[in-house]
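*** Residues and shapes ***
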Amino acid sequence: MTQEVTTTMYHGRTDFSPRSTLLTPTTGSGLKQRIRELEALIDNDLRNAQVELEALRKLRQFSPDNTKELIEKMKEEIIAHFEDSKSELKKFFIGQRQENLKLHEHIKTLRNENATLQQSILALQRRLQAIEEDIGQ
């Protein structure tokens, strides 16, 4: 029979649940059971140490010397991205300005046509009124 141990991982540490600990078996009380529990505890500690070692190795990769280089590289990337965005915006604004001028000219033309049509309507209304007066007399 093997004992089930409930564990939870928190930042590389394994915490055992209060309902069953490794040194207080819930099934059997023999010496072999306690040895299995100690082996499980040692294996667990070994895994935790390996995880911690891996984390420390990763931290060592980002040592202060390397950090300065990474910061400079990030600055350069940010500046390059900013310059790219700036040039794209300039192109967009130039195109937008040209489109706005084109639309403004089109609106001006339509307004002139509208004024001409309104004058024509007034002239036709006057003619119609004059014709009605001639017919009515």
Observations:
- The CA atoms of residues 129 and 135 lie 10 Å apart.
